[in-house]
Amino acid sequence: MRTIVNRIVIPVAVWVARKNPLADTVLKAIVRVIQRVSFALARRRQPEDNHTVLFFAFMGKKFADSPRAIFEQMVDDPRFASWNFIWAFRGYDGTEFAESFAAHDRVRTVTYNSRGFYEALAQAKYWVTNSHVTDGVMRPAGKVYLQTWHGTPLKRLGADISTKDSKMPKKTRNYGSWYRLQASKWSFLTSQSPYFTEKISSAFQIGSLTNPPTILESGLPRNSNLFTDGSTLQNKVVALRSRLGVPQGKKVALYAPTFRDNQHASSVGYTYNLGIDFGRLREQLGDEWVVLFRAHYFVANSLNFDELDGFVCDVSSFDDINDLFAVADVLVTDYSSSMVDFTNTDKPILIYAYDLDEYGNQLRGFYIDISEFPGPVITEQDELAHALNRIDEVGAEWAATRADFRGRFATWDSAESTKRVIDAVFSA
Fold first, then answer.
1. Which of 45, 142, 271, 288 has the fewest CB atoms within 10 Å, measured from its CB?
2. 289-317 in b/e burial notation, b at 16+ Cβ within 10 A?
3. Looking at the predicted structure, is the pLDDT value of residue 299 above 80?
4. Distance CA 19, CA 3 (A)
5. In what order do the strands lie in the sheet with 312-314?
6. Residues 37 and 13 in one domain
7. Both 351 and 420 in a single domain?
């Protein structure tokens, strides 16, 4: 019966809901009730443990980001030698996690949104994520929920997205009330800068909450590893290039675009149109470059680069983007917050905004003028190829702008960011 429900009933219900707004509303309400009941029953079965932490990143899709940084530091910290750690995953092969922690006697995994997940929510005093806890679950008194939101918002978010004359799908408009509900669950929120605090507070309507979360002016834990010293970093880069199959001597461009709200297929989820003719780009760049393509975690469609003979490598399933930052000689992005984190490396950034008018004026819009971004704004592929072919000059030309941008948007990032968060949140 469970197999029939999972393989037939649920997919059909989701398909109907995506086609019909009323059905979507009803289905979501039913799901929230099921989640609420599942958590309540789990709490009756499973007593809370003050020394257990539950982690999940990107709704269970990756072993990555600030939850990973906090976990890896805590598991090796003598202060937490008797603590237990749980990771929730879904649709994730667990390879990288298993290589390091499969045999660890204080670390275990559960499947996100399963019975085991609700029991882990009940058992753990501490919840750590960079996205959100299942909608139907509210944080009970006494539990601690650490929110490490996955990046500084440059494009508008939540309650700040205008719905007037918008081309965004109706289902994705005006999520202000949903965002406010999520923020009401948080105990702590990590912040990267005063700007981060201001915009996240606005998007999630934190100022309207009776019991707002404590904001930790710590920087993002995920970025501590961007401050690794020279020799250690070089060894890491050599190992990563070998793992990715990047030939020594090749320049590496990391292409990491964000998702588009209006590129959504009812039977698949968010999809992505590349915006680059990689075959032509290869001709324009010659043999000097390798492109690492990193899709946003929302994007569901797979892309095939086999015909490009190693010129493009799909690294969308790679766990931690910060490892890719270490390998990359340049970041090519559009409106993604990855540019904020990447400024910590002081390497060049190119803004490839091929759909700037539509995205900026008809979809989300921006909190700041795109002219303030830390690299040249490029709208045509020929311009992109030209910039890559003279990337050392471009990097030097934009060095002062990158430094100013980092000072404004990554103000509190440092090698100590992870430690500061752990010290503030966890009672060892």
1. 142
2. bbbbbbbbbbbbeeeebeeeeebbbbbbe
3. no
4. 24
5. 312-314, 289-293, 251-255, 330-333, 349-352, 377-378
6. yes
7. no
Identify which has the larger pLDDT, 31 or 330. 330
Single-letter residue type at 33: V
Q: How far apart (Å, rounded) are the C-alpha atoms in residues 16 and 182? A: 26
Which amino acid belongs to residue 132? H
Asked whether residue 288 falls in the same domain as residue 361, the answer is yes
Distant-in-sequence, close-in-space partners of 27: CB < 8 Å, separation ≥ 6:
13, 14, 16, 17
- One-letter identity of residue 34: I
Over residues 146-188, the pLDDT tens digits come to 999 999 998 888 888 876 655 555 444 445 788 999 999 999 9
pLDDT at 309: 72
pLDDT digits (tens, 9 = 90+) for 319-367: 889 999 999 999 999 888 899 999 999 999 999 988 776 665 445 577 9
What angle do the packed helices 417-425 and 65-75 form, to 10 degrees? 70
**Token reading at 41:** 């029953």
Query: Do 95 and 320 contact (CB within 8 A), yes or no?
Result: no
Cα separation values, 383 from 353, 386, 391, Å: 11, 5, 12
Do 354 and 213 sit in the same domain of this protein? no
Which pTM was predicted? 0.88
Q: What is the number of domains present in the chain? A: 2
CATH of the domain at 279: 3.40.50.12580
Q: Where in the sequence is the domain holding 301, given as residue range(s)?
A: 229-409
**How far, in Å, CA of 212 to CA of 210, rounded?**
6
